[in-house]
Write a structure and sequence with these properties.
With 421 residues, this protein is of the alpha/beta class.
């Protein structure tokens, strides 16, 4: 059985690697490391199918070291010890280069075992991870390694790889392969930066279109294959948090088109809880007092979405997301509570003024006896001037009215009752 297309097309030199020009272009740091032939400990961080393993293989060839491969999802401590046992043998005379895929799945003890051999130079480590290494990799390994972030490939990068693959497959099968420019573009775009995904979908297209006379891949068959291979993101990975971040920032930034797009990505992944939670947060944090009526409206939409479930949940959520995105914005309440929390956490508490305390008698040591609380409803406009904050904070201002129409109306009333006009 032939190897997968992605393996058969794997670049053999750095110049053949698609994308990653921020790392591999002439003069860039990783390119200089490759050209030097001396390999330090490295950590490659980025999504699947963007060239991490390919670059590691090329580095191994230039180093002259024995290449060992482990995948942390299945490897055990025994596998590490087996590799360590080959240190100093003729086979590993130039040293060992260990490519450890998905290092985030190694526990701290396993990473510590590796560390001792990394420190004395017996093993050179190239670790790959789809997760942020600063959260998942043991600090001692991080401090002895250089981290390089691999980016998702552009559609143009992938289009070049797919075109090359079509030529290779056509030669292998000795049949012409036709794919329209439109379908080529769609295939490259739908891969979402993952070359392996694009090549897998291309192989499937060819499998369903091959005849004795040739391989004519129709636009319709491409559409069907793309629909059955819709991109999903990892709900536990970095992309999960990136999508959520973009979702809330698009609502805050008053872009309803981007906001509803990121909502669609969340719902396509079945992540209804995150879509609802961030929507509620955004209504309170970013619209807030500029349109306070939005809070119960959004809550009702979220309750409806949870009641009906997916796929119908998309409808009330779309209404609410677009409403939040197009509403006036204010973070005055958000800023006020943050300032107050900062003072509380800094220990600025003080004693509650006597007139606000929940007691109706004074001790013998009280200089002024009696609560002397003034009931605001007994005064014109239901307001009377009295101190509410502790003495240590009595002149502190936490809340400032926002410039929006609603809060300015509140301010006009505020100024009136406090005789500030």
């Amino acid at each position: 059985m032939s190897a997968p297309l992605a393996d058969r097309l794997r670049p053999q030199t750095i110049d053949e690697v698609a994308g990653q020009q921020h790392l591999l272009a002439e003069g860039k740091i990783l390119r200089r490391i490759v050209d030097s032939g001396t390999i330090p400990n490295l950590i490659f961080y980025g999504p699947s199918g963007v060239g991490k393993t390919t670059v590691a293989n090329i580095l191994a060839k230039t180093s002259g070291k024995k290449l060992c491969y482990l995948n942390a999802t299945t490897a055990s401590t025994a596998d590490i010890k087996e590799i360590v046992a080959s240190i100093g043998t003729i086979e590993a005379g130039a040293g060992i280069l260990l490519y450890l895929d998905e290092i985030q799945y190694f526990n701290k003890k396993q990473q510590q075992i590796l560390l001792s051999y990394i420190e004395n130079g017996d093993i050179t480590l190239i670790a790959a991870t789809t997760e942020n290494p600063y959260f998942y990799v043991y600090n001692a390994i991080l401090s002895r390694s250089t981290v390089f972030e691999f980016k998702p490939l552009t559609a143009a990068d992938i289009q070049g790889v797919v075109t090359r693959a079509i030529g290779i497959l056509s030669a292998e099968k000795q049949k012409p392969i036709t794919l329209s420019p439109l379908s080529l573009h769609k295939l490259s775009t739908a891969a979402a930066g993952d070359v392996r995904r694009a090549l897998n979908m291309l192989e499937l297209c060819i499998l369903t279109a091959e005849t004795d006379g040739g391989i004519d891949i129709s636009d319709q068959s491409v559409e069907e294959i793309l629909a059955s291979n819709a991109v999903r993101y990892d709900r536990e990975g970095d992309e999960h948090y990136d999508v959520i971040s973009a979702y809330q920032k698009s609502m805050r930034g008053s872009d309803p088109d981007a906001a509803v797009y990121y909502l669609a990505r969340l719902l396509a992944a079945g992540d209804l809880p995150s879509a609802c939670r961030r929507l509620l947060v955004c209504a309170n944090e970013d619209v807030g007092l500029a349109y306070p009526q939005i809070i119960p409206i959004v809550k009702a939409a979220v309750d409806t979405a949870k009641e009906v479930g997916l796929p119908e949940a998309r409808i009330p959520l779309a209404n609410a997301v677009i409403l939040v995105a197009t509403s006036p914005k204010s973070n005055s309440a958000y800023n006020a509570i943050n300032r107050a929390m900062a003072d509380v956490e800094a220990g600025k508490t003080g004693n509650i003024p006597r007139q606000l305390q929940n007691k109706h008698f004074d001790g013998e040591d009280a200089a002024v006896k009696g609560q002397h609380y003034l009931y605001p409803h007994d005064f014109p406009c239901h307001y009377v001037n009295q101190q509410y904050l502790p003495n240590e904070l009595k002149d502190t201002r936490y809340f400032e009215f926002g410039p929006n129409k609603t809060e300015q109306q509140y301010k006009e009333y505020w100024d009136k009752i406090k005789n500030k006009k």
